Automatic annotation (TrEMBL):
This is 4-diphosphocytidyl-2-C-methyl-D-erythritol kinase. GO terms for molecular function: 4-(cytidine 5'-diphospho)-2-C-methyl-D-erythritol kinase activity; ATP binding. The gene is ispE. It comes from Bacterioplanes sanyensis. Pathway: Isoprenoid biosynthesis; isopentenyl diphosphate biosynthesis via DXP pathway; isopentenyl diphosphate from 1-deoxy-D-xylulose 5-phosphate: step 3/6. The keyword Transferase applies. Belongs to the GHMP kinase family. IspE subfamily.
Length: 283
């Protein structure tokens, strides 16, 4: 029996998120700055000689074939001429619908790992194209580099020069439906494009923040509270919010001053995905 291979699926933050317009297919043109966190889910893979894919444990409320891990594995199986299967274990840490990209990161880790185990020799570009069909955030996890994203999120320019602070992330106990935020009529969709240089100065905002705070007042409340300590922003379409700090200690200190009912974690911003480090070695 083959050995288990453990591979991380890190979280991402959207350090800014501007919505520039809406395309005819309903998807939105945006500009966003992605950075990874040294915090996330963990997946374990064991190759099988038959065509079976197993996944344990199941995610509550997500059907087996709808799980992005299974959808990613199926997309690769369809491209293989020989039988290829895998047993997969998932250690889920990231909140679902949290704006931390957990499902997308699980999918990207699955694409990268099975491409290697099944010796499919697909390029990162090919895997990112397959990933984009699973979710707008999958390509950045496949490429594994902090990046400024344009288009619907798939045109990526790596930003290795981004500083790597510590973040305090607050996790409101709310599940935000991304589609509902993007289809809300109050969402502003006319922000002017900015340059990467401006984005790297961390001057951008999150255009979803007003609508998300209106639909989920508890998120607006958490933003106001965290803003008392340090400028706070929403990641993606929420629910999570974050502030940056120059040290881990400072972030922990603020987390201890928040009301006990707030669920939080502290993590370091990183420009290179730990998934790539495990699968391809240090860059
Ligand atoms: C908001 C972000 O989190 C920023 O990183 C992502 O763009 C969203 O990525 P995701 O959760 O992987 O979202 P997807 O599963 O691709 O899309 C969910 C829904 O959000 C809307 N959507 C998403 C991305 C985009 N550029 N325009 C959109 O209008 C669409 O209605 C879509 O049906
Ligand atoms: N492996 C998976 N992990 C998490 N969610 C999954 C997974 N597979 C399918 N899903 C579905 O995808 C939805 C979005 O989950 P996800 O954790 O990626 O949200 P998110 O953090 O808000 O992502 P984003 O920032 O990309 O919008 C979930 O509500 C769930 O129904």
């Amino acid at each position: 029996m083959a050995d288990w291979l453990s591979v991380p699926a890190p979280a991402k933050l959207n350090l800014m998120l501007h919505i520039l317009g809406r395309r005819d297919d309903g998807y939105h043109e945006l500009q966003t700055l992605f950075q990874f966190l040294d915090y996330g889910d963990e997946l374990q893979f064991r190759q099988r000689d038959d065509n079976e894919i197993t996944l344990t444990p199941a995610i509550d409320g997500v059907d087996f074939e709808d799980n992005l891990i299974i959808r990613a594995a199926r997309a690769l199986q369809a491209l293989s001429e020989k039988p290829c299967g895998a047993d997969i274990r998932l250690h889920k840490v990231l909140p679902m619908g949290g704006g931390l990209g957990g499902g997308s990161s699980d999918a990207a880790t699955t694409l990268l790992t099975l491409n290697k185990l099944w010796q499919l020799h697909l390029s990162l570009e090919q895997l990112a194209d397959i990933g984009l069909r699973l979710g707008a955030d999958v390509p950045v996890f496949v490429h594994g580099q902090a990046a400024f994203a344009e288009g619907v999120g798939e045109i990526l320019t790596p930003t290795p020069e981004l500083d790597e602070p510590w973040y305090l992330v607050v996790v409101p106990q709310v599940h935000v439906n991304t589609g509902k935020i993007f289809s809300n009529k109050c969402l502003t969709r006319n922000t002017a494009a900015i340059s990467i240089r401006t984005a790297l100065r961390r001057e951008g905002n999150n255009d979803c923040q007003a609508v998300v705070s209106m639909l989920h007042p508890e998120i607006g409340k958490a933003l106001n509270l965290l803003n008392n300590f340090s400028p706070a922003k929403l990641t993606g379409t929420g629910a999570c919010i974050f502030s940056s700090f120059s040290s881990e200690l400072e972030a922990i200190k603020v987390s201890k001053q928040l009301p006990a009912e707030y669920s939080t974690f502290v993590a370091k911003g990183i420009n290179h995905s730990p998934t790539h480090k495990v699968l391809f070695g240090p860059s």
